[in-house]
Design goal:
199 residues; mainly alpha; Endonuclease III, domain 1; 2 domains; elongated
Length: 199
Amino acid sequence: MDITAAHRHLKKDSRLAPLLSKYSLSLSKISTDLFRDLLESIIGQQLSVKAASTIIKRFVALFPDPKNIKPKDILAQNADTLRSVGLSRQKISYLQSLSEFILSEKLVLASLKDLSDEAVIENLIQVKGIGRWTAEMILIFSLGREDVFSVGDLGLRTAVSKIYGVDREDKIKIENIAKKWSPYRSLASLYLWQSLDNK
């Protein structure tokens, strides 16, 4: 991403511009372990950042090589052992589904980088437990896609609602506001999240 060009474009929006001056952001690098990112995304669903972090640490400690967990390693784990680190039965089934999709090559993670944003989403949401929001987070934070805005993200809608005075449930109006930030909607999203001052 040409960060200078991106800032110049986003600053055309007079309501968004103050966020660019107030916050400094470092862009995330493209991930080298999509499987790990997806595991952590599933584990973290509907949990606070702190709770998710605790369970993820316990989860990875179950494996001989915590930095290199493979789909076969997930399927080899006993369900009771997985439950013991704080995972629900439902999330265990999601992790197993993801692992099975990859081992059967119904989902080829290495090919995602060559697909369009929408094709990546279509591939990922085949897996039980991965919805559009999770897929969009993977696009932004793991694949480094520059023009993604997740209207399903409550935080983003809340930030837009505060800044633009729109109802945060009016997804059509919010999506229309976000269109003006294209082709840098991912960067705009990072600033919007930052504006919420989440700890």
